[in-house]
Design a protein that fits this description.
Length: 350
């Protein structure tokens, strides 16, 4: 039996980590889309239905491949530029982020009414700020807010820019342009009850009002892929609170619900694995993590770090080493995950 792990996720999240939160996960919907979801009339951050479908699905590698092809064919294609940047937000290579930021700056200048470029550039600047100094980060706040507001104006029916701006306001205190009152004001003009409940859940989470968050999440009834994405992320946020509380056992049925409602998505199985891991049930945790590995959106969840830890917990050092090495080699892995995996690998010894 290994010692229980601390809530490292929450401790590592600073202002900038909270700000990108769900926005940058880019993970979402079921493998099969109905005709209604593929129509151009659907409100979405990307007008290109094929690119948007991959974005909603959390198929980051596929989105990256298609957007790269589009950019090569037409470097001035604003939809492709935005899609490529969104697909590559979580890459560990800072040079890629810099290149995408430059491309998006050109896109905003060249096509000032292209909301997708404003939205993607706002997120890219947030990611740049995370890797820079605090002074530089503070200097970018105004620009991020301006871009997010412009994206919301250009894409009034797309939930992504509004959600991004809400997270921005909730992550920052009022004296630097944030605050709950501004976040709540964004609920005005939202006509979709599901989107409204998601926004209310996010505000409740920022105040650690867990009963209100659960109530809002359970009230969400939607088949919109981009809202299912947000539901998964917020559902997982609530679940993490459970398995770092004195209600750990509630996390298992909570994530089982997510897995049942969105059975093709990796996030439910991943959360279930973490819930079992928090309870010290490592065999079940490993089974859930292995199941998640083959599901949609798995590439962005940092699965191998958790799988390696659970394998080590059950005493399977050989398999743990394999998983931890995959974590270290993952091009989408965060620096924090990679460093933790190196430490875990070293602790396993020879």
């Amino acid at each position: 039996m290994t010692a229980p792990r601390n809530n490292d996720d929450d401790r590592r999240r600073g202002t900038w980590r909270r700000l990108i939160g769900a926005i940058c996960v880019i993970t979402g919907f079921s493998m099969v889309l109905s005709v209604a979801f593929a129509t151009p009339a659907r409100a979405a951050v990307l007008k290109d239905a094929e690119l948007q479908a991959l974005l909603d699905a959390g198929r980051a590698d596929d989105l990256e491949q298609l957007a790269t092809q589009r950019v090569k064919a037409d470097p001035d294609d604003p939809q492709a530029a935005a899609a490529l940047a969104l697909a590559q937000l979580d890459l560990a290579d800072g040079a890629v982020l810099k290149q995408n930021t430059q491309r998006l700056e050109q896109c905003v200048q060249r096509t000032p009414n292209e909301g997708a470029c404003h939205y993607a550039l706002a997120l890219a600047l947030v990611m740049q700020a995370r890797g820079g100094s605090k002074l530089k980060a503070l200097g970018s706040l105004g620009r991020v807010s301006e871009l997010a507001q412009r994206a919301m104006t250009l894409l009034p029916d797309a939930p992504e820019p509004r959600s991004a701006l809400q997270q921005y306001y909730l992550a920052l205190p009022s004296f630097v342009g944030g605050g709950e009152s501004k976040a709540r004001a964004l609920e005005q003009d939202v006509k979709d009850p599901a989107q409204l409940n998601l926004m209310r859940a996010r505000v409740a989470a920022s105040k650690k009002d867990w009963p209100a968050m659960e109530k809002a999440l359970r009230a969400v009834k939607t088949q919109r892929p981009e809202l299912l994405l947000e539901l998964r992320v917020l559902w997982s946020d609530y679940g993490r609170n459970l398995f770092f509380s004195d209600q750990k056992e509630r996390a298992v049925p909570w994530f089982e619900e997510l897995l049942k409602s969105q059975p093709h998505q990796a996030m439910g199985a991943y959360g279930l694995g973490r819930a079992y891991d928090a309870l010290g049930q490592y065999d079940k945790a490993v089974a859930a993590f292995e199941r998640a590995r083959g599901m949609t959106g798995a590439e962005q969840l940092g699965l191998d770090r958790r799988l390696g830890s659970a394998l080590a917990g059950k005493g399977d050092k050989a398999a743990a080493r394999v998983a931890l090495q995959r974590c270290i080699d993952n091009r989408r892995g965060s620096h924090g995950d990679m460093e933790d995996c190196r430490k875990q690998l070293a602790a396993l010894g020879n």
